[in-house]
Amino acid sequence: MMESPSSSPTLQDHLSVTTGPLHLKVWEVVCIALGAFMVVVFFLTVWFTIRSRKRIRRASANIPVTQIPAISKEIKEVRVEQVPASDFGAHDGVLLTFQDKAGDRESDKDKVMVHLGVSKSRRGDESNSGSFRYMDKDAGFQSAEEGGSGTFRQTSAHAITAPSPLVGMPEFSYLGWGHWFTLRDLELATNRFSKDNIIGEGGYGIVYRGEIVNGTPVAVKKLLNNLGQAEKEFRVEVEAIGHVRHKNLVRLLGYCVEGTQRILVYEYVNNGNLEQWLHGGMSHRGSLTWEARIKILLGTAKALAYLHEAIEPKVVHRDIKSSNILIDDDFDAKVSDFGLAKLLGAGKSHVTTRVMGTFGYVAPEYANTGLLNEKSDIYSFGVVLLEAITGRDPVDYGRPANEVNLVDWLKMMVASRRSDEVVDPTIETRPSTRSLKRALLTALRCVDPDSEKRPKMGQVVRMLESDDPIPRGDRRSRHNRGGSTEMDSQRDNSDTDKSDNPDSKPSRSRASSSK
């Protein structure tokens, strides 16, 4: 009998063949290879997706300055006040009109006036008024109906300070002022925010010294983004002094907005601050003379008079203290740090449950009730004036119990007729009796516990500038108030005292002569 020929192997037979040292069947090897291929494809897809997103993000961070990033649009609308255009006919400002859709009717547009601190004007009056200058209109107010969607118009006015130090640099800005710096610009200016460039630190940020491309020295304030605090302080400072110009206010030159970064760029003031001069930080430069101290305090008073009385809405600084009064090479004051500032309408006050400020400088009614108005700044200024007169800290727990609080101690000394003993002993040439008592009277009026009896800052400027005797009525009106008894009892002698020192002529401080 013949054997039948064997049948040829099938595909199943081939796939079932055992291969390799692992003794895996062919079909098992094929499945493993397919699985590995799919895993590789998946990871490649994820990698390409992440890379493309990073590229898009990097491109959006470096958009040309001719385009407006979304974040700038948001900041541009910071705290605008929506009111009829007719209400602002007498003020300077930036008029914005916004239209969400191209087809919206004219009546559906949002018309708002952005107030970032604008000087009041007197038509036809070009005179200066003590602490500030008035601004004259060059052009009338333009109504919202004249502008198109997303446009803005700005009324013009004479500048009240010198031109911007950013000469030669294009002013690309979407806040209506200043320079829009990139993060790269400020990294180059500060040596990548080097620790060696740090000139100040605080709860809200770090201040670096820098030099921008045109050689201008600047102070770069990098805000710390703690729970959105950077955004809040950025808006406050931009709103308070973005448009404000005064020789005794530190100038805000520009800003940087990239991602979560909020950075403010100021003019650089290189001669320390009043606290450093009074309490040792600048002791190697010498001691401030009486004349230098009064000059610094007078400049500070002029800056506050401008903020309170010359712009609309007025600005309440809320943190006037010696460390926030910068000093330039000519010993002129530059008020700085508007991170706590508050804008208030004419005659308005603000009540808050969160009192902000520095212990020792805060007005009692603000600390106790949260009531905030310009009188709060006036109290703080009075404390700084006493600090400059005495060389003492507002609160010093290293002193005896009855001398811890500067204001209380000063009132006690004046009531005890020992006002001549309060002068800072580091002052080489003592002030004349008239000059000392004028400064003390001014300070005591500023720190009056009754806020309604405190003078306006314009009055403070005139009191510090004038050499005329203080009217008797002013002295009598303070009778029986804390710290005024000795002043009232010497009505005639206080201004014509024979101990006026003929040697106390205006002189620069030892510090200025040692430069």
From TrEMBL:
The chain crosses the membrane at residues 26-50. GO terms for cellular component: membrane. GO terms for molecular function: ATP binding; protein serine/threonine kinase activity. It is found in: Membrane. Residues 488-506 have a biased composition (Basic and acidic residues). Keywords: ATP-binding, Kinase, Membrane, Nucleotide-binding, Phosphoprotein, Serine/threonine-protein kinase, Transferase, Transmembrane, Transmembrane helix. The keyword Cell cycle does not apply. The keyword Phosphoprotein applies. SUPFAM superfamilies: Protein kinase-like (PK-like). This is non-specific serine/threonine protein kinase.
